[in-house]
Design brief:
Elements: E1 2-6, E2 9-15, H1 24-32, E3 41-46, E4 49-55, E5 60-61, H2 62-68, H3 74-93, E6 101-102, E7 108-111, E8 116-121, H4 137-144, H5 147-150, H6 155-166, H7 170-176, H8 185-213, H9 217-240
Antiparallel strand pairs: 1-2, 2-4, 3-4, 5-7, 6-8, 7-8
Helix pairs in contact: 4-6, 6-7, 8-9
């Protein structure tokens, strides 16, 4: 898809192939906003065929999100990921084939204000049956291994999700998110780092007090400056992790 920016927003634009025709029922579902996790789409007739424009104004692409956002927000983002997989079932309940989903990372967006993952659905007539395995297995595997997802899911969850989709196992899809799993290793490393800084802060405070006690004021003042820097670092990290 091509990215276009105009006076009325930002759009992803694609042109249907000659053998593809608009699925009017699917177009009405997307246009009506019945499924809020789907990005709004507009259809225009062009000389070379029908052009679909997806309006992603105000949303952040997941590639850009992981580059600019340092904190992982495991709990909140897991909720967004769960809602995305609920979307797959919702589409099936609306009799919409899943092969029409655009699963490339540059076409998937995150709405931070609503904690929602927004995805494009191309409303053309598809030949696939209405089931989970209509999703391209390679595309969903690549997507789940993207940092946006892999930082919030462990390897067992990713494997189970791929298995559930390939085998049309809807109960398993629901069960995966119904149980509490261990947080990913990336989150554990961040917690260890914070504990280390806290330990250094306490240790430097004690050393500063001891130096003042034995009247080594010049060393005590120098160490006080280090202690202040450590305190600012710990306070800043605590503020970043407040949502967790």
């Amino acid at each position: 898809m091509k990215t276009r920016k105009g006076p009325y927003g930002q759009f992803l634009v694609t042109t249907l192939k000659k053998e593809e025709t608009i699925y009017e029922y699917a177009m009405k579902i997307v246009e009506s906003g019945q499924i809020e996790d789907l990005i709004p789409v507009f259809c225009d007739e062009r000389k070379n065929g029908l052009e679909l424009s997806f309006d992603y104004s105000g949303l952040t692409n997941i590639n850009d999100y992981v580059k600019t956002t340092k904190e992982i927000n495991v709990i909140t983002r897991r909720k967004a990921i769960k809602d995305l997989f609920c979307l797959f079932k919702d589409l099936l309940n609306h009799l919409l084939p899943l092969e029409n989903l655009v699963l490339e990372s540059n076409c998937i967006f995150f709405d931070e204000s609503k904690n929602k993952i927004k995805i494009c659905y191309q409303p053309y007539i598809a030949n696939n049956t209405i089931n989970l395995s209509g999703i391209n297995s390679n595309k969903i595997e690549n997507l789940l291994n993207h940092e946006f997802f892999s930082s919030c899911l462990d390897s067992d969850e990713i494997t189970s999700l791929i298995y559930a989709i390939n085998n049309n196992d809807e109960p398993l899809l629901e069960e995966i998110f119904s149980q509490e799993q261990n947080l990913p290793k990336t989150k554990i490393r961040i917690d260890k780092e914070r504990i280390t800084y806290r330990f250094l802060l306490i240790f430097s405070c004690l050393c500063t007090i001891f130096l003042f006690y034995i009247k080594r004021n010049e060393y005590a003042i120098f160490l006080s400056a280090i202690t202040l820097g450590l305190y600012i670092k710990v306070a800043y990290d605590d503020r970043k992790e407040k949502t967790i």
